């Protein structure tokens, strides 16, 4: 019964809706608890309050921790994870090394010290000034005494001092003389490759470190790459070869001395990839102490001037092969077509030859004997438009794309108008001035089988895609054969190097005088060629500025007596260094067989 | 029961706190160690780059050229020319090991041979010295004790 009541009670309905009357018997309200069983409301309230406070405190503490952490993060300096806390360690990789193609170091960094002064820390500024003047002869004691006693609080004194000098400054015992950490860019090989490397100087500097900035050459062009820490100090690998470069510079210097020339340049370039294995310009300088650019005088005589890239010269008869190759390519002639070499006047200007070559010569002989009239007649048959387009395809109308700061400034000087006389003179290399590098690129493009190459100073990891076609393979081989005969029986006979089948062309151009016209007795001689002729691997261009040599009974200035022997000696010395095995019997079979086969096609 | 639970959780708390602090100290010690190692690595890097620069400086072509010239009498180094290329056959390899000498026929083998008998062997009669001696081959390179070829 009791249980039943309990159930009924449970089922007793409570008002769920205040507006609806509860049906059924009204449940007896639970007996109100007696005051003894119930807690007093103050205590309940106090407990609830305590709990609320506790929860609030928890929240406040939680937010406070988060807030404090945020505050510390915001207030403290951001810090990158770094290798070693020594300032030097991070800076070692600050600027990457430059190496040659075999990994030999061409430019690297070493530790150095900079000296600065804080006069307000000095004990005896006068003694310090005199002491420094004794250590560094170029410092004037009185000037520095004045500076040290002035109000200024900071002076840079020396950017770079040797350890001995540092010790001497230490020995002065002056607390106001302080040393800053430095990295110094060094070029261990001295003047070798000076023009390519350029040089570096300090940019923004601080007492803890200084930024190194490239001034010229690859140092300037690849400044971003070299100072980019994401490369993790991976060196910049150039296409140049240190031993080849040294040899070229040595031989060139000797040739320059022998021929009494005032400057010389040489380029060795891979015919297929356009990689420059060696590029030399004399006189040169030491990039460790790069001289200041000269204010007066001819900038072309300054050692900083890179003759191979910046020197824009009329390159003379070396251009003749372009006219001959184009003539062959267009099908106007073949190697044996007879060309009229009788006296010729174009636009009333006579075209002169070094000798009179008689009435006519074959195309090969025009190149071998270097006849201006013959080349001019071939060029006139080609026509100005096509000649221009051909030279443009070889890159003679734009600055060389090589990675040097000087290159974009060295735009070839091309005629603005192109009348017949220009067609004639350009065909034998007058009226159009270009740098030896342009010539090397053009020779490589023409003679490597006839595809355009782009010169580069970086070692290529993968061979580049074949460039656009300039001439057919067959014309390229034909041009090589003509150039080969220039060496075997023509003007470049001194270029013969046993085993390497040099093929090339000489060029002797009168130097233009700054007052207008040409010098009578000053020339620029050039030899441009490839070797070996039957399977070309390298292009060589050697240029001498104002050479003269007493040989075979008279003073001679032509390229055949000046640039050619130098080029031959260069090839004789560098070809073995580049791992080329001399081949004493290849020529006859390979080139002959190729030409026979080509003729049958 | 409750007391045991409390005791256990306090012990666990202390244990965990000890463990956490221990981990913290260990981490800090490791960090210090790493920093020390990195400092050493940095210093070694610096030293290495210095040594590389020095190596490049000492091996600069000008200096090597001068040294080769100074020591020409001793070393005989000269510039590489096309003439220095040769065929593999021209290289003076050490001679092959001589074949083992044929067993010399001892006197006992011939003891029972009568004069006039047919023999199927060869009697080596070697007169090395004297005017009739065949010319000795003099070209084979002499080898030093360690196998190096002497001029």
TrEMBL record, chain A:
Its EC number is 2.4.1.129. One of its GO terms (molecular function) is glycosyltransferase activity. Residues 21-44 are annotated as: Disordered. GO terms for cellular component: plasma membrane. Keywords: Carboxypeptidase, Glycosyltransferase, Hydrolase, Membrane, Protease, Transferase, Transmembrane, Transmembrane helix. Residues 94-226 form the Penicillin-binding protein dimerisation domain. It is an enzyme of class 2 (transferase). GO terms for biological process: cell wall organization. PANTHER family: PEPTIDOGLYCAN D,D-TRANSPEPTIDASE (PTHR30627), PEPTIDOGLYCAN D,D-TRANSPEPTIDASE FTSI (PTHR30627:SF1). This is Peptidoglycan synthase FtsI. It comes from Jannaschia seosinensis.
UniProtKB/TrEMBL annotation, chain B:
Keywords: Coiled coil. The keyword Coiled coil applies. Residues 27-54 form a coiled coil. This is Putative secreted (Periplasmic) protein. It comes from Jannaschia seosinensis. The lineage of its organism: Bacteria, Pseudomonadati, Pseudomonadota, Alphaproteobacteria, Rhodobacterales.
């Amino acid at each position: 019964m009791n249980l039943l009541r309990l159930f009924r009670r449970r089922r007793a309905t409570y008002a769920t809706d205040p507006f609806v009357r509860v049906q059924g018997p009204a449940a007896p309200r639970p007996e109100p608890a007696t005051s003894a069983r119930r807690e007093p409301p103050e205590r309940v309230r106090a407990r609830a309050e305590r709990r609320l406070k506790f929860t609030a405190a928890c929240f406040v503490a939680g937010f406070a921790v988060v807030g404090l952490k945020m505050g510390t993060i915001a207030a403290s300096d951001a810090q990158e994870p770094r290798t070693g806390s020594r300032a030097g360690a991070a800076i070692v990789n600050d600027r990457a090394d430059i190496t040659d193609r075999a990994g030999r170091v061409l430019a690297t960094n070493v530790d150095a010290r900079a000296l600065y002064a804080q006069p307000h820390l000095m004990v005896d500024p006068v003694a310090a000034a005199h002491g420094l003047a004794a250590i560094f002869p170029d410092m004037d004691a009185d000037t520095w005494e004045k500076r040290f006693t002035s109000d200024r609080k900071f002076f840079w004194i020396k950017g770079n001092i040797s350890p001995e000098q540092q010790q001497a400054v230490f020995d002065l015992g002056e607390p106001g003389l302080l040393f800053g950490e430095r990295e110094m860019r060094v070029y261990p090989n001295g003047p070798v490759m000076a023009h390519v490397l350029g040089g570096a100087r300090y940019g923004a500097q601080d007492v803890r470190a200084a930024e190194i900035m490239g001034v010229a050459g690859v140092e300037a062009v690849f400044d971003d790459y070299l100072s980019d820490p994401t490369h993790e100090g991976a060196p910049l690998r150039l296409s140049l070869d240190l031993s080849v470069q040294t040899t070229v510079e040595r031989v060139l210097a000797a040739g320059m001395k022998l021929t009494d020339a005032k400057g010389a340049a040489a380029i060795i370039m891979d015919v297929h990839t356009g990689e420059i294995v060696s590029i030399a310009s004399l006189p040169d300088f030491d990039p460790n102490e790069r001289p200041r650019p000269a204010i007066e005088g001819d900038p072309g005589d300054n050692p900083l001037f890179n003759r191979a890239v910046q020197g824009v010269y009329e390159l003379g008869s070396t251009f003749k092969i372009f006219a001959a190759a184009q003539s062959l390519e267009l099908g106007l002639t073949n190697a044996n077509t007879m060309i009229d070499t009788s006296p010729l006047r174009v636009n009333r200007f006579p075209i002169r030859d070094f000798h009179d070559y008689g009435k006519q010569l074959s195309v090969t002989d025009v190149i071998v004997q270097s006849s201006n009239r013959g080349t001019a007649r071939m060029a006139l048959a080609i026509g100005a438009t096509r000649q221009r387009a051909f030279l443009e395809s070889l890159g003679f109308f734009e600055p060389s794309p090589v990675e040097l700061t000087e290159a974009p400034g060295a735009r070839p000087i091309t005629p603005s108008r192109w009348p017949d006389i220009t067609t004639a003179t350009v065909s034998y290399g007058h009226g159009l001035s270009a740098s030896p590098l342009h010539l090397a690129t053009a020779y490589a493009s023409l003679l490597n089988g006839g595809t355009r190459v782009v010169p580069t100073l970086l070692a290529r990891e993968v061979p580049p895609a074949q460039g656009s076609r300039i001439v057919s393979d067959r014309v390229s081989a034909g041009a090589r054969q003509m150039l080969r005969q220039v060496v075997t029986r023509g003007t470049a006979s001194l270029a013969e190097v046993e085993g390497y089948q040099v093929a090339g062309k000489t060029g002797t151009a009168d130097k233009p005088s700054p007052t207008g016209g040409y010098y009578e007795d000053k020339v620029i001689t050039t030899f441009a060629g490839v070797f070996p002729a039957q399977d070309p691997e390298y292009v060589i261009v050697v240029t001498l500025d104002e050479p003269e040599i007493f040989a075979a009974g008279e003073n001679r200035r032509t390229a055949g007596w000046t640039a050619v022997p130098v080029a031959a000696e260069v090839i004789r010395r560098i070809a073995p260094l580049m791992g080329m095995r001399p081949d004493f019997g290849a020529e006859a079979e390979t080139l002959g067989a190729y030409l026979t086969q080509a003729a049958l096609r | 029961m409750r007391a045991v639970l409390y005791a256990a959780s306090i012990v666990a708390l202390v244990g965990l706190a000890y463990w956490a602090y221990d981990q913290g100290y260990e981490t800090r010690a490791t960090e210090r160690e790493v920093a020390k190692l990195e400092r050493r690595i940095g210093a070694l890097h610096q030293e290495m780059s210095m040594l590389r620069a020095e190596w490049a400086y000492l091996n600069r072509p000008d200096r090597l050229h001068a040294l080769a010239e100074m020591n020409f009498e001793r070393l005989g180094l000269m510039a590489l020319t096309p003439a220095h290329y040769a065929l593999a056959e021209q290289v003076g390899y050490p001679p092959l090991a001589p074949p083992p000498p044929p067993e010399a026929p001892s006197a006992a083998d011939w003891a029972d041979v009568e004069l006039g008998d047919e023999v199927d062997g060869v009697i080596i009669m070697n007169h090395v010295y004297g005017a009739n001696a065949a010319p000795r081959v003099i070209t084979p390179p002499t080898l030093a004790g360690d196998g190096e070829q002497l001029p």
